[in-house]
Each structure stands twice: as structure tokens, then as C-alpha cells.
Amino acid sequence: MIRRVLPAIGAAIVPALLAALVIGQPIAASAADLSPQYVQRSTRCPVCGMYPYRTPQWTAQIVFNDQTASSFDSPADMFRFINNMMLFDKTHKPADIGAIWVADYTTKAWVDAKKAFYVIGSKARGPMNEPNLPAFASREAAEAHVKAEGGKVLGFGEVTREVIKSLAGAHNH
């Protein structure tokens, strides 16, 4: 049955896979899977306690090298987390971050946060009805948002602590 289910693996690998399953030993992964993880209904943002599942156009996520993840209700909270990890996560350090993801504000598809474009100062309100940083996969989409809703386009490296502090909110850290 496994030979039918996993034909792409190849006949040479299947016996080793079967042996590992029969013996009950773990199967070594070749590389850590740092792709975005499904955000459960019960997952809470480590910064504000909200449920990221409820606001898919705002969701952000950090996947750590140990393949655990922290999900956020907005890009602003993700940046707050990155800027002060010791406050929000006692088990990981900045060096443990394997990948950072944000949802495209328009399509809700995951985008590499370091390649995304963020809009500051637009009329769009985040999950707490406060100014936030809607994220976009392309500069063109971010500029279209600016044209319709106002604001300014920023790249990942331009979202500084000062930018985050400038956003209103009771939970600014």
C-alpha cells in the first residue's frame, strides 16, 4: 500500500521507511519545514491575546527552527513580538526564528514577511480597530491600497521600533 501511496519517493527509499515504521524509530527529516502553519481557532496572539484565526487578512506568523510557531492577529503585533521577544516568549531567542510570514491583506495568502510591503497611515483599521500595517505581496498592490486608503508603503526593514510605537494602541510595548 505504501508503494502505491508514495510512488514519488522511489522503491529504494520505501524499504527503509517501512523498517523505520516497523521498528518504531523516528524518521529523520532532511530539513526543517519552515512553511506557514495552519492557525487553529484556539490559537491566541502572544502579544495581545486575540485570536488570529478570526482576522485572516491581518494574520502574521513566525515559524521557529524547531518547527513551532507563534501566530499574531496583525503585522503590528508580530513586529512588537520581534522587537521584544524576551517579554512574549521565554523559550525562543531571535536566532531561533526560521521564517516570518504575513497574510496578504487582499488575498489572505501567506507571503514571506521580509519580501512583503506594509502600509502605514491608511484608513484600514486592524483587528482592535486601531491603525495597523496591512501587508501586501507586491509593491503595486500596496500602492493601490495607498491610492484608495491613504498612507505610505514601507519594506520590512523600514518597519522600525519607532514606526511600531507611532501606531496608536493600548498594548504598545
UniProtKB/TrEMBL annotation:
Domain of life: Bacteria
Alphabetical keyword list: Signal
InterPro entries: N2O_reductase_NosL
Keyword Cell inner membrane: no
A Pfam family it matches: NosL
Signal sequence, start to end: 1-31
Keyword Repressor among record annotations: no
UniProt xrefs under PANTHER family: HTH-TYPE TRANSCRIPTIONAL REPRESSOR YCNK
Protein name per its UniProtKB record: Nitrous oxide reductase accessory protein NosL
Annotated source species: Zoogloea oryzae
